[in-house]
């Protein structure tokens, strides 16, 4: 899946996938669903593009109905996700809004239950990523917005969802390789991803008696709109070349990890993190 990425930049967070060149690979042509998630219902935050979109389509191919949460500026990408999910013969609910608002975090769960009557899988995936090469350039607003989006929403959506989850259901949190390595120019983002990793482990222990599994996925450099929306065009052109595999990954190389964690294949797995990162060893 070698990909040549030309220099490009977007000024809007978390980025618009429709404007990427080349377009990310969302699903492999030879991926065959086997009903691993037959008639399950999944709520995916940040499900309009990138990894979230790929997870939505893979889940749908495995038989799940989908609800996705996204910002209103990402409507074009969300409509593409809708088309892809419906092409798999499954239903999808679009939930535009602001996850920084506590009441909206509750409402997305309520709307999912209203539409589908149940909820089995929660994928906390939404994130923003702001670059600050000098730490003192960070504004308090940057810190608040990043934390409210990247970790507060995970707490709030999960809390609202728990009353509807039962034995065998699962929660999957998107963390990052930066949770383990840190990244000098992404201090807020890296620290929220570290918080997500710790949240995943703590929540897994908390919910083990209820037999609700909680796991995480920590991607490395994956080609999504978050990248050109975060760094310079020159840096984008070098994206992913510093990992052992010497290339960025594609969303379709990450999404099957979510299928595994959402399905009975991982029935004895909780409190763990999968690392699709191109070969970077982080011992975490």
Task: Give me the secondary-structure topology.
Layout: E1 41-45, H1 50-61, E2 65-70, H2 75-87, E3 92-96, H3 102-116, E4 121-124, H4 140-162, E5 170-174, H5 178-181, H6 187-207, E6 213-217, H7 233-237, H8 255-262, E7 273-274
Parallel strand pairs: 1-2, 1-4, 2-3, 4-5, 5-6, 6-7
Family: Belongs to the short-chain dehydrogenases/reductases (SDR) family.
Keywords: Oxidoreductase
Protein name: SDR family oxidoreductase
Account of the 3D structure:
It comes from Spirosoma taeanense. 36% of the residues lie in helices and 11% in strands. It has a single domain, classed as Rossmann fold. The longest helix is centred in the middle third of the chain and has 23 residues, at 140-162. It is built from eight helices and seven strands, in the order βαβαβαβαβααβααβ. With 284 residues, the protein is an alpha/beta fold. It is globular. The protein has a seven-stranded parallel β-sheet with strand order 3-2-1-4-5-6-7, with helices on both faces.
Would you summarize the structure shown here?
It holds the Pfam family adh_short_C2. With 284 residues, the chain is an alpha/beta fold.
Largest sheet: 7 strands, parallel
Output the CATH topology. Answer: Rossmann fold
Shape: globular
What count of structural domains?
1
Number of helices: 8
Beta-strand content: 5-15%
Low-confidence stretches: none
How would you name the CATH homologous superfamily?
NAD(P)-binding Rossmann-like Domain
Instruction: Calculate Rg over CA atoms.
Output: 17 Å
Strand order across the biggest sheet? Answer: 3-2-1-4-5-6-7
Identify the CATH class: Alpha Beta
